[in-house]
Amino acid sequence: IIMNQIIWLTGLPCSGKTTIARALAKKINATVLDGDEIRDILKNDDFSIEGRKKHMLKVADFAFEKSKESPVIVSLVSPVREVREEIKNKYENVTEFFVDASLDECIKRDVKGMYAKALNGEIKNFTGISQDYEEPKENFVRIDSEKQTLNESVDEVISHLNFNKEVEKVDPKLISEATFIVREFKNKFKNPVMLWSMGKDS
């Protein structure tokens, strides 16, 4: 069975994940799994850290099954870094995109007033206010939704997906050898520098 890409959009509430997901889906003909909608389907209102961990894993399982039919875009706060790494290790067709916007910007965008309620103590376990969001550290693509337009954000995701397709055509032995050389170079020198001609073959 050929697996399609699972594009996992993570970030603070109101960072732009769902907006990007909807626009992206139209361009690549993908299925969107939105966090709020999935919670309604699963009848899940547990927003504790443990509850979120279980929810993230359930969404990942569901997304994997859907990826047998079409590309899948997951729009989910998914605040726990450890679980996101677990998901990427379990399913090789998952690519993590961190939709980055400052807390102040997210509050400005919040038309539902969720942040205001969280700040007033009306909403418990709200990510960014009473619950931490753990930003990714490795194996992810950062989308700056605060500085980029919607079209620029969508194009950046597509560009990365196309790059992955090109990499898949390369001999795995060549990739392994190149990775080894770069890793050894990095470990040997304190401040390594790589010169790049900007030509397509380099």
SSE blueprint:
Blueprint: E1 6-10, H1 17-28, E2 31-34, H2 35-42, H3 49-66, E3 72-75, H4 81-90, E4 94-100, H5 103-109, H6 114-119, E5 140-144, H7 150-168, H8 172-188
Parallel strand pairs: 1-3, 1-4, 2-3, 4-5
Helix pairs in contact: 1-7
Task: Tell me about this structure.
The protein is built from eight helices and five strands, in the order βαβααβαβααβαα. The protein has 202 residues and is α/β, with parallel strands linked by helices. The protein has helices spanning 17-28, 35-42, 49-66, 81-90, 103-109, 114-119, 150-168, 172-188; strands at 6-10, 31-34, 72-75, 94-100, 140-144. The relative contact order is 0.17. Helix 1 (17-28) crosses helix 7. Strands 2-3-1-4-5 form a five-stranded parallel beta sheet, with helices on both faces.
Care to count the β-strands? 5
Rg, Cα atoms, Å: 19 Å
Distance between the termini: 34 Å
* Total helical segments: 8
Binned strand content: 5-15%
As laid out across the biggest beta sheet, the strand order is 2-3-1-4-5
Low-confidence stretches: none
Global geometry: globular
> Structural class of the secondary structure composition?
alpha/beta
The major sheet is characterized as: 5 strands, parallel
Helix residue percentage: 40-55%
Average pLDDT? 88
Q: Note the run of SSEs as H and E.
A: EHEHHEHEHHEHH
